[in-house]
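Weekly sync notes, structure subgroup
Attendees: PM, AL, DS (notes)

Item 1: joint prediction request from the bench team. They want all two components modeled as one assembly rather than separately. Inputs as received:
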Amino acid sequence: MKLITKYNRINILLIVVVFLLSSVTLNYFVKRTLISELDEVLVEIKDRADHYTQTEQKIPFNSSLDDYQISYKQVSDFTRKDQFTTVSRKIEEKNKIQNYRELSYSTTVNGKPYLVKIEKPIEGMRHMVANITNLSIATILLVILFLVLVNRFVLARLWKPFYKSLEVMDHFQLNNQTELNFPLTTTEEFNYMNRILKRSTQKAGEDYIALKEFTENASHELQTPLAIIGSKLDLLIQDEKLSEKQEVKIRSAYAALKRMSHLNQSLLLSAKIGNQQFTATNTISFKQKINEKLDQFKELWEDRLLIKASIDESFLVMNKDLNETLINNLLSNATKHNVSGGYIDIKLLPGELSIKNSGPEKALDPKKLFQRFYKSEQNSQGNGLGLSIIKQICDTSGISIHYFFSENTHTFILSWEYKKMADLHKKNQTNLHINPDSTYSIAS
Amino acid sequence: MKVLIVEDEKELASSICEYLQGENFNCEAACDYDQALEKINLNSYDCIVLDVMLPKGSGLDILKELKNKRKEESVLIISAKNSLDDKVNGLKLGADDYLTKPFNLAELGARVQAVIRRKSFKGNNEVPIGPLTLDIQSKTLVGANGLIDLTRKQFDMLVFFIGNKNKVITKETIVEHLWGDNIDMVDNYDFIYTHIKNLRKKLMLEGCPNYIKVIYGVGYKFELN
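Output from the run, pasted for the record:
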């Protein structure tokens, strides 16, 4: 629920309650005042009537035209002090209930006891109450209408900078650092908020860059010691007097070193892609590149896997090195996570590459498979960076990637907008920023 | 042949020197920019193995200096920076090859040999292997009965062995050399055995002794005196 709606609800509820209370109170006091006025009039009539009966010693005549009615009823010995009551009576000819204020008391006329009743209709009061009620309702409605209008036009305007700041924050991306332009406002709270937002995003951005640089620098610094270890092992195996036991140990050291170097290189590559160091793009014939790779890897697959390839021509505008890494990682992934006697099925269409491979019976976790260091099996020799690098490359190259699993078949489908790539290629050509060796014409 | 290793990591420089020493190379090492310039000005070398990041200066500046002085040395850059720009810059400035750390000494050995061969023996790229002759330029192996049919991988493997003759090379190093270092596809390098076996068979059919020795559990050694 919007803050304004929430505020309005409380506000309107309160207004209604206050108005109801005030109109009830008003009603009560007006009624009381009116009745006490009426009672005064009745007492006045009583005084006049008493005066008449005292001086004339007979019951006064009461005209039906008078706005009050006075009646004398002879009673046996009876005394009553002034007593005011409100009575309702049905008027037959008008078919409605009429309220009266009645004053009753006892008196003696000509020595006989009488019960006197003076009554006066309380006509005006009903209208008064109705008016007060109507007025209250009208006022409530008016106030609500006014509130809604105020909120709609005034509050919406007051909150505008807030929503603008939200919009700015919405576009904030850690890996795409541009200065955030928060709106200038005259509202102190919003300015305060914007200052804090700006400071926090800047800090987050700086931390993020520092972290990325750390990964790159750390990987970089690791390369020299790795080179030294490798070179010492290379020299060690030259020794002809090595025992078999020692050789086994050296082999293990080599294997560990290799894993470490791979991990390091992958981290470095990942950091570099993240730092957008592969910005130069070319039009690439995917067909040619894949065929080159298939040729390069064919000895590795011999007698182990069945390779089916159906390669149509397809062009891509992307970085050359990233393209190579992408194909490498995809094929290497399909090979490593295969079963013996399995297959790899590669299909390239304009705008789509699908790589199917047989593999373990369990699907990869679709939520995690592109995360760094995700491994379907913990003891796997892979470093868990291959797929995350594939994803990174796809993201930076405008390619979308999806994973499917069915009946021991793992499929990765990469798709890109062929038309868009073709346009991009044309643009590249007109700008003449492209290396002529790697350009291919795109059939329209 | 004289080789200068310009590398600030003394341990790495000493490994490279020790490895190359046996291959008729005479190695010297320089560990910073000034020392490297001094040695280059005083002596002439067949090949310079050059690290890019050096104390007191950049290896690329040394390369510029060499080119300004029209020195003939072959230059092989070794660098921890495997960014494309560095590679392109290095080669633009006239380096003959580029190798990224960490590398195998066998790979470095083969590259140094190749670089020297390309420059020093202009045109003459024939290497004798016992009764056979390996022509690196035309990618052929010629025996007494004429051309020997080798697959491309077998030829590349032979060149790699020649570049590291009498050295133990691991299976991993051979696979990396032949299939590129970014294949982490196979966890088992035993398939290389088939290729080695076929190459050995072809060489022995031409009357060669068994040059390719198996060093059990580690790799192979191409023994040629």
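Discussion: Helices of chain A lie at 3-56, 123-170, 188-236, 244-274, 286-301, 320-336, 386-397, 418-431.
Action: AL to compare against the crosslinking data before next sync.
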